[in-house]
Amino acid sequence: MKAELSQRSQYSTSSKWENIASYSRAIKVGNTVYVSCTTAFDEKGELVGIGNMYQQTWQALKNIELGLNKAGAPLAAVVKTIAYVTDISRVLEYSKAYSEFFSKIRPASTLVEVKQLVDPRMLIEIEAIAVL
Known about the structure:
The model has no long low-confidence stretch (mean pLDDT 93). The chain is globular. It has 4 helices and 6 strands. The protein has a 6-stranded mixed beta sheet, with helices on one face. It is an alpha+beta fold. Helix 4 links the parallel strand 4 (78-85) and strand 5. The longest helix has 18 residues, at 53-70. The protein has one domain (2-131): CATH 3.30.1330.40. Helices cover 30% and strands 27% of the residues.
């Protein structure tokens, strides 16, 4: 484990929240990439799809893909996702977007309902683990 930690690399996607909350979009240790909880903010810092679970899920997954790519990992390397949603009854909207990214990859997946996210307009946060 000590040798692996010496191989630790951090990757940013320039989200303002990365500096405010002191986290990295992705961390690569050895052959594993951990992508932080990711939401539906676009490259301009604007929340995409207000009120729309499908659009927010799609944008969050695109942001995860960007974080993975910065760490040198393809989306196909994802082995686990964890999603936090504010309304579990909208699971079909979530699943439609999720399937567009993962229908062939089929990682292990967890979906959890939470009361609220940091910004009340956010409907979803997703994190991922990829193994190269």
